[in-house]
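Input chain follows. Return structure tokens only.
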Amino acid sequence: MKLTKPKAYRIYSIVGFAFPFAYQLSFLFEGQVLYGLLEYFNADAPLYITGAIAAHFAGLFTGGFISKNIASARKAMIFAMGLCVLFSIPFYFPPSVLWATGLIAAGYASGCAVAAWGFFLKAFTPKNERLQSCADVLIFSNVLMIAINVMSEMWSPFAALSFSLACIPLGCFFIRLLPVDFEPITEASFRNEIPLSSDHPLLILALFVFIITIDSGLMYQVINPAFDHLTRLVSWYWAVPYILALAILRFMPLSRKRSPVLYVGMGMIMAAFISFMLLGRCETDYLIVDTLMLGACGIFDLFWWSILGEMLDHTNNPAKTFGIGLSANVLGVLCGGVLGMFITSSKLPSAEVAVIALIVVCITLVLLPPLNRQLVLLLKSHTYLTVYSGMSQTEQATVMSHIKTLDPLTVREQEVLQLILSGKSNREIASTLFISENTVKTHIRNIFSKYDVSSRVELVSTLLKNQSAK
């Protein structure tokens, strides 16, 4: 069957990102290839691994300042991945200063490349299919990672390093096939969408992701070392539950995703740590713990990747939004790893270490529901603002007339409300009406009081409910 151009470009985008992402997962980002090389040369693992993760975080966080449009994003991806190949060559030789330099440089370059892909996700995948595209990327890259890990364990880390490096030119080949003058397929469907009026939703999402992935960092330092003796089983099974969870969610009806599965993931991750405390360290025990832990990670990752994909339509720089969102994931892993190293270095019995880790997990999971609720409210509010901005003035007036207030709005308050519903910030409202920001804040407080709400989110949510009820 011949593919249409949009479908072909979507596939090129997914495959072009998944290949180099597999290199990062298997080598740069605490990958088994890196661990194998460090063990082969008896090198100091924590120092190198922490440096690589920190550099990757920096690359993700600043990648949006490098990629300004889809053309510069394609150049950034190809150039950055070329640097990754160059800086990985020293790992064929005994440890030297080039190892630390290479990991930091490659970590930063790969972070910039990942951030740049935000442009391609926005341009070549429709908004309602981004969850599937994110799942496809994560599944394909993790399948490749398993193959590379098995090669590292069964053959040699040097052969596995070569395999992972071969993924980079393959990815660059597919990225080169993507046009830079292609009209994004999202534009026709979302022509009326407006940018987010602030970075608040992105900050909430980043905090959400950070808290979730602290548990992943703990896993690396607390759970994984306990099963070091099951090397062959770990090399191929480790990511299998993660892939299965992604595959299940990918093919679930859209109406059944999001919040309900978040609670399933929370239950699984708690069950994983409890099982780790109660069970032994044999193969069956590992299968139970890893299935629960990595299955939860798959649920969490696709949950926030899909939200991040939706946010791309509300930004002029998808690389910035995508990069900052993913950098929160890396920062969470880094902080969780440091916390895990601190816990395990305390020389406490393994049972006490597991209890401390479980307490940390419980604290983080308690924070997720309110964060999720706040994030959902913000996104729903902005969705309404988008719809409202596309209405005619008559339709907008009809919506306004159906909303009851405790007291009538003044003419100026009506003007301020209209500008709020146009997505304007306080500063933009002040500039439009030629009044001070403090005066704007006073009007907004009065509007909140008359609608009996306490924030813009609640105000727009009230309007959204009114619109839905009509």
